[in-house]
Design brief:
Elements lengths: L5 H23 L5 H11 L13 H20 L6 H25 L5 E4 L2 E4 L3 H24 L7 E7 L2 E9 L13 E5 L1 H8 L11 E6 L4 E7 L3 E6 L5 E3 L2 E5 L6 E3 L6
Parallel strand pairs: 4-11, 5-10
Antiparallel strand pairs: 1-2, 3-4, 3-8, 6-7, 7-10, 8-9
Helix pairs in contact: 1-2, 1-4, 2-3, 3-4
């Protein structure tokens, strides 16, 4: 029987859950703060202790897996979001795909590489191997992102839907790789809109009273300074070419005089 070290098990589970949550956030275009991601991954790794229990019935293992994924998603994204069911499905699906990949790898490796118990896995990985596999996965993702950028249809036309409380406005969308603004606290991309275009949404509200208000540095070719941003209740970007729309994780920055909402194309990739 393979020896299982508790500290290694918890670290591996924390590591895997962190990246599964990041993948879920990317697939569902959801905001995920670093603190909440770490807290959810840390709480979820406690479920890996089930590997030490005697074998449980299959239906109990499935029920525990579903409950663990639901708790993890709730800790990471909250339970009041409209996308919760889709987030839960993606997170559970990523877990399922990872388990299948591990089974395929284990079938090709020597015995003792992995230990299974109650649908949880313990891998005999060294820290160096973990770092190398992470670097390889990151390189593959960067290559995929580069490929997507090269083949992105830049001639499409977009609309940006912004909802705050009970008000919604629709603005022409302009993808621009030059807009690299991000919220330094959440790493969310900033969609830049003029104060005139946002007037129907904000009415007479002062920027300082808006949710998530803060000032961030902004530099252009001719000037630099600070622009205010706020957190809307919902942002969707719709392609007028294909008719498809998707919710995005973004903040609204107030600046410029343009009629359109300027966003980085990464928001829709």
């Amino acid at each position: 029987m393979q020896t299982i070290y508790l500290d290694v098990l918890l670290i591996q589970s924390l590591y895997v859950n962190y990246f599964l949550l990041r993948a879920t956030a990317k697939l569902t275009h959801s905001c995920l703060r670093l603190g909440r991601c770490l807290a959810a991954a840390g709480g979820s790794c406690l479920f890996s202790l089930l590997i030490f229990l005697p074998p449980l019935p299959f239906w109990v293992q499935i029920a525990l897996k579903l409950a663990a994924s639901a708790v993890t998603v709730s800790l990471a994204f909250g339970v009041r979001q409209r996308l919760w069911l889709w987030q839960w499905f993606c997170f559970f699906g990523c877990n399922f795909l990872l388990a299948g990949l591990l089974l395929a790898v284990c079938s090709r490796t020597e015995q003792g590489f992995a230990a299974w118990g109650n649908s949880y896995c313990y891998l005999d990985f060294s820290l160096l191997q973990l770092i190398l596999f992470t670097a390889l996965a990151y390189s593959l993702l960067q290559g995929y992102a580069f490929f997507r950028r090269r083949h992105q249809h830049t001639q499409e036309h977009y609309e940006v839907w912004i909802r705050l409380h009970d008000k919604t406005i629709v603005l022409p969308g302009l993808p621009d790789t030059g807009n690299t603004l991000t919220d330094p606290f959440t790493a969310a991309s900033v969609i830049v809109c003029s104060s005139e275009s946002l007037e129907p949404l904000l009415s007479d509200a002062q920027p300082e009273t808006l949710p998530g208000y803060r000032l961030i540095p902004c530099a252009t070719v001719t000037s630099q300074g600070l622009i205010p941003l706020f957190r809307p209740d919902e942002v969707c970007i719709r392609s007028l070419t294909t008719g498809k729309s998707r919710p995005v994780c973004g903040r609204i920055g107030i600046g410029g005089t343009q009629d359109s909402a300027i966003f980085h194309p990464d928001l829709i990739w």
